[in-house]
Structures are given as C-alpha cells and as structure tokens.
Amino acid sequence: MNPIEYDYLRKLLKDRSGLILSDDKQYLVESRLLPLARKAGLAGLGELVLKMRNGSESTICDVVEAMTTNETFFFRDKIPFDHFKDSVIPDLLKARAARKSLRIWCAAASTGQEPYSLAMILKDMSAALAGWRVEIVATDLSQEVLEKCKSGIYSQFEVQRGLPIQKLVTYFKQVGETWQINPEIRAMVSFRQLNLLNDFSSLGVFDVIFCRNVLIYFDQQTKAGIFSRLLKVNEPDGYLFLGAAETVVGLTDAYRPCPQRRGLYLPRTALVASPSLVPGMATGTRAAAVR
C-alpha cells in the first residue's frame, strides 16, 4: 500500500467511523484488510482502494467493519456493573417509582456481552422490578457483530472471560462446543445498527447510557460532539458510564464525574447527587450540588 492509498483509507475511516489511525498503523491496516482483499478476489490492497474510490459502498462497509475493534467480555472491568447494581438501579427504582419504567442504552455493544451482562443483573433483581417495563437498547456500527449479538451464542473462551460460573449455569445452555444465552435474557435486549458520528435522537431518551471503551478511538473534537449529543438523550437525572481509560475532563461540561464512583458520570443538569452515590452519606441527606 503506497502513502496516497493509506492516506485515503485514514480519511475514509475517520469520516465513516471516527477511527483515528496514526502514521505508524499501516501494518495494522494491511493485516486486517489483506484477507478482505483476497476474499474479494483482488490482487492486493491497491485494487481494494480502487474499488472504494469507484464508489463501491459494499466494499467501504466491509472495510469499516474489518477495521472496527470489537474487544469485549462479560462484566468487563466489574466495577461499573457493581455501581449499576448497587447504586444506580436502587436510586432509579425510587426516582421512577411513579412511571415504573427504565430505558438503558449500550452505545457500543460489540458482540453483546455488555448488554447481556446488564440483562442478567436486572433479571437477578426481578423481584424489585416486578411490574416494571425495562428496555435495553444495544447499538453498534457493525452489522456483523450485531448478528452475533442476536444469536447469543458464545464460545467456551468467551464465557470464561468475566462470566461468573453461577450465571453461566443459570442463564446459558450448552450447544455442542458453544454456549447460548437463554431466550428470556435475549428477549430483554433489542439491537440496532448505529453510527455514533450521526444523530441518534431517534432512539429516544434513556435513564442510563453505557458508552464504554469506544471513545478512546476518536479525536478530541469527535468526543466532544458525541458527549453533546449523548446529553440530549440522557434523562436530566440519568447516568452515563464510560470506560476506564475515558473521561469527560477537558472535553466537555455536559457531564460531571460522580464522586468516588470511577467511570460513572452525571449530566450537568443533575444538580444534586444521590446519597447512595456518595459513600458515607446518610440516606436521605442531600449531597452537595454537582458543579
């Protein structure tokens, strides 16, 4: 691949997916796209780029999918899921007691482990959620990984990464050498293809948004734009979860870090932090305003 072809690919990937490739990542592009070129019967990456330049939308989509990182596993990083179970859901059960409904969005669902982890947590809390309408919306740029999400089928290696054995026994059944998550858990999640670079207001408004381990691939301006759009679909007293290597600091004033809750953020419109989100505070005591 010559420098002109590489520059073309870098610009296309940034425009289509937000992915930023540095000058020294050409080896990564070649390792991921050469198999795609061979599968299409092309002589090399030069011919692949030529097809893209000639307007082959299917080729462009295939390239974007091939370059998308889909690393994930069940209950990844554990701490955010503990916050979700121990603090966020109990607070929302009180705040939404009148309407008895919750909407949760996984904005970079990858192969589905994150939304299904949340579904299992909520299933474990089914007694407290009796009579409630709970919706989990999972989106991803890649249609290929969304199909895997819908199937709910995972390899032995995938279920061994982060999934507690009791949840494997309770919520999965073995199918040959693979494991499939139970229909009742799959039914709790709906999947849609979505590009975070585009407007996503059509999804509606959410009480909780998980946008974890995807913003690290974007430049500062793209991140700031996404935060601005996330705020518009996040309830004013809702919550945003980011990945361990992600932050709003220095990027936006749309969100503020939740005190002593790593990875959890509150919309700027949330003027009062919930007592359960501030360790050591007595129940019913108003927290300091988040500024």
Describe the overall structure.
This protein has 291 residues and is an alpha/beta fold. 40% of the residues lie in helices and 18% in strands. It contains eleven helices and ten strands. Strands 6-2-1-7-8-10-9 form a seven-stranded mixed sheet, sandwiched between helices. A three-stranded antiparallel sheet has the order 3-5-4. It starts with a helix and ends in a 24-residue tail after the last strand.
Brief summary of the model shown:
The chain is α/β, with parallel strands linked by helices. Helices cover 40% and strands 18% of the residues.
Low-confidence stretches: 278-291
Task: Let me know the number of strands.
Answer: 10
Strand content: 15-25%
SSE sequence, one letter per element: HHHHHEHEHEHHEEHEEHEEE
List keywords for this structure.
2 domains, 291 residues, seven-stranded mixed sheet, 40% helix, 18% strand, alpha/beta, globular, Rossmann fold, Chemotaxis Receptor Methyltransferase Cher, domain 1, single chain, disordered C terminus, three-stranded antiparallel sheet
Q: What's the topology here?
A:
Elements: H1 3-17, H2 26-39, H3 45-53, H4 57-67, H5 79-95, E1 101-106, H6 113-124, E2 133-140, H7 143-151, E3 153-155, H8 156-160, H9 165-171, E4 172-175, E5 178-181, H10 183-186, E6 189-193, E7 206-211, H11 220-233, E8 234-242, E9 255-257, E10 264-267
Parallel strand pairs: 1-2, 1-7, 2-6, 7-8
Antiparallel strand pairs: 3-5, 4-5, 8-10, 9-10
Helix pairs in contact: 2-4
